Structures
1.
Amino acid sequence: MAVGAGPGSFTGLRIGFAAVQGLAFGLELPVVAISTLQVMAETAVRKQGLSYGLVIVAVLDARMGEFNCGCYRIEENGHLSAMKDDQLLNAQEALKLINGYEHCVVVGEAAALELPTFINVYPDAVDLLKIAQRGFVTDLARPIDEIELVYLRGADAWQKRKRIRIV
């Protein structure tokens, strides 16, 4: 089994993870946890026919002026390799990251960055499966209780605003 482990929306990640968690526990199956940003990059490679040597910067709008960003290079064998850990950046930092690569394609939710061009692509389960198959071969599958979701923004961002009661 495989699961998109984030980053992404808190609720979406929890729902997907809960479904996989129930199946993995019940069937005693190992799971490969995969970055949402890596799946987006893989989807762009497949849908756009991107090739060797190109750097893909996958972007998810995290709201509040921040962006989840992941950088991947297309290797000679066609697989993606992570160039950096997925990270949460403000708009200025995200643009600096993108502009730091000479041959770069930006994919995902990048409209708020006001880039001249980007490919609007979302993660596709077909590509999650492709990455998961490689993960099983390279021994990345783990028991579900060892897998943690990736929330790049701190947990305090999800706490509901506390009401102040005036007496």
Note: The chain has a mean pLDDT of 92.
2.
Amino acid sequence: MWCLDDGSGHDLDGDEKSHLYKQYLRIIHKFCPTIFVMENVRGLLSSKYFDLIIADLQKPNICGERYRLYSLVQEGEDKQEARLEPLDYLIRAEKFGIPQRRHRVIIVGVVERIEKAPALLDEAENDCTVGEVLSGLPPLRSGLSKGENTDSLWYEKVSEIARRNAGLQGMAHVPIRKRLKQQSATPPQKIAAGRTALQEWLHDPRLLTTPNHETRGHMLSDLERYYFASAFAKLGSRTPRDTEFPPELAPNHKSWRTNKFNDRFRVQVNGLPATTIVAHISKDGHSFIHPDPSQCRSLTVREAARLQTFPDNYFFEGPRTEQYKQVGNAVPPFLASQIAGIIADLLDARSGNSKSVDR
């Protein structure tokens, strides 16, 4: 097993964050894959160990083979990895048809006997947005987390919220939808036209219902903030800062209005890609408020899954908290598919053993 040492005698064995990375190195070293794809968070780039990680990935495996390292978004000088800067390995998912600003480090390692370099990912012509991807999913109401929880009571209470918020910050009154349920028995429809590849990727006409599309319950005080935030975003195409919330909507948190947590209540804006879907969505929906004020709620597992580009027929099992975690921890499947296509082309090149490293 490779030892993580930065050359100064500092062994990273005591650093919990290094353990998974070391296991990845161990597997590469032991099983000698022809190609590997390593994914990690953006924070890896600022780590003082990044150069060490690159050096370790280039070490020969147990079969005596070394790897060239490539970016999927940036060519290095002389078409090789030696001239790449750390940021060159950063993939901004929204540039490649993913409706989410998810930035991750992805490194492709290819054994030296394959001298062909992987192709670069093809950039999309324009960003895919929250509104485009959530279109076609049945509208729902939130639950009421305390006391009675009926469709009629929810409509009554949230309609009162809408009336109280009318005129705040210049916002128009957005009526609450009637006869909404907490879950839908109808199948999802295709996303908005113009995203043909993603449409086909997500849609399954065989579905008779929409899997994992059920809302969770919220306190009325949070629903009031959700309504304000989503109505604000509908007017201004951005989520409000904490300092823009009316005083009566301020939560009882010491950090409120310190500008320390400007995204504590954050709307996923219709006309923009979503912010990064993270596992923390399992805790509460405050940072993942639905853009439609008339539904006044946070995102369902299915909506988060669509923003992550899971096909509509992908069913998440376990408690809803665990379902959210599964969604937030994943690599967007539509992006993974694009990367897989590039890797498949490289594997096809093995028989030809191309002598060119041109992309």
Note: Residues 12-124+335-352 form one domain.
3.
Amino acid sequence: MLESKMTRPWVLALVLLVGGGDAVADEIVQEGSLSGPAGEPVTHEIVLSPFDSALGTLNFVRLDFLTSVIGGGETDGSGIAVHILARLTADYAFLGEVIAETEALVDTVIPNTGPPIAFTVFDTDTATVLYDRAGTLGKWIGHDDVLMTAVVQLTVTEDPAGILGFGAGGTVRYTVTYDYEPAPACVADLDGSGDVGFPDLLTLLAEWGCVGTCLADLDGSGDVGFADLVLLLASWGACR
């Protein structure tokens, strides 16, 4: 049982490294980091950059999250032991739905007898969200910025209070990865037959008004409409 608790203030500036990158080895990686003070939860916004459809079809593959908490200091030698509890949690939401959760937890007892003892504590936790065409993230086809939220909370407790020089910090990192595929030679060839004809036209008409991930969204606008029909008719015939 903890006899006393004290939450130490810890403040780190929020750093978001946003924006896409150049395609390297058929992959684009976007990274950033989040942090917040101890105690109350802090909500951050994460802006995930749109795909560049002019380069080809960029398919979202996964989101990787890494949470880490680290602390350290020196005991004062005035007691038997010190109980250190440091917890960093992060919940990630997209369109109001939590898609990933992480928790890095340090729960340890440090000897506190005799001469002062220097110590460090460290822990990590990871989570991965894979692309799911039928799920929430399946609607993300990269035509606009995607706004996510992350709620980050760091809690640090010591028992007994008054450890000399103790401090804790935590960082939440995220990585979004895209696959890059060259644009097809004939984007209007929806059935893969090698030419654009009536089967492709029927597919487009069947998807007319479709919003989101649509096979017949030829211009990458996020929906199927007149502009896509014009592109299909302009490509009529054998693919070149």
Note: Residues 195-238 form one domain.
4.
Amino acid sequence: MYLMLTEEQELIRANAREFADKYLEPIAAQIDEESRHPAEVFEKLAEMDWMGIPFPTEYGGAGADFLTMAIICEQISRSCASTAFTLSCHTAMGAGPIYRFGNEEQRKKYLPPLCTGKLGAFALTEPGAGTDAGAGTSTAVLEGEEYVLNGTKTFISAGPLAETFMIVGMTDKSKGARGMSAFIVPKDAPGFKVGAVFKKMGLRSSQTSEIIMKDCRIPKANLLGKEGEGFKIAMGSLDHGRIGVAAQATGIILASLEESIKYSKERVQFGKPISANQAIQWMIADMAVALECARFLTFSAAFRSDQGLSFTKEASMAKLFTSEAAMHHASKAVQIHGGYGYMKGFKVERLLRDAKITEIYEGTSEAQRMVIAGGLVR
């Protein structure tokens, strides 16, 4: 299969690259150093209608598709992986579950703010439940016309910033994962608060925190889907989230390639640019091959999602390959830069730190292999 982008998608890719060059490239190193969320950039993303890319215009979205979102996230990640991840996580797992599983009343109430500038977040992981999401201990008990939520969620992307959260809790502990339900929780719900904000090795301008619920009360109408469907909703959201991570990792590979080509032409040793050395050329060639493979896997998974086809295995393949390739080739980019590549102020140092987490969140590489193999051998 040959996946060819439409003229409109090619134009969007060019626009996204221009946007990243203008608004992110000049500040990316600074916001990384300061661990600062670039609110001014997200205001501009909202102006571009890129906060609700794959959602219908009737809900405030751009009326595009998930492939378009992947295209935009790749180009943004080329300049700032933190911004790309915050955007993709908001879209795929903050707003996405409301659109895919919510009723019409929920869509009309919550999607327009999320599509026009407010951030959404996804809260599944707990201190004792990561890959084994079914081991979560957060509870949701129905009391009259309200659910009462108790528990702590951790590693929540955009936790300190989001206005609306998709949270999974146990409504029937006796059923394990089948007793999990999903809820829409606004940040101003009684008993809801942001806990510790984490300091990270990479993606430093993407905010990550704990979420604490202590007798947090929300209306019964905020149940997403039906009771017992929380695990299914969460796994479906992660499938879309993995495409977002794959686009982010692809952008890191793209940046590694471009920075390596540029530096290798400028750096002179033994009277010639190091780009003339076969060892450097081979590393650059391998990056170029990995970029094309990563882009195809990512876009193919997004395309299958847009066509209503199964894409769980394909999303895991894309996430697995792109994340491991991003880590490998960001490391090679540092190697090409030599001692300078290890220093703050050189972009490749940040690329390497940002690449590592792509092998961990939205399911580790080991978990992706489990998903892929499970779809092949059963």
Note: Residues 230-266 form the longest helix (37 residues).
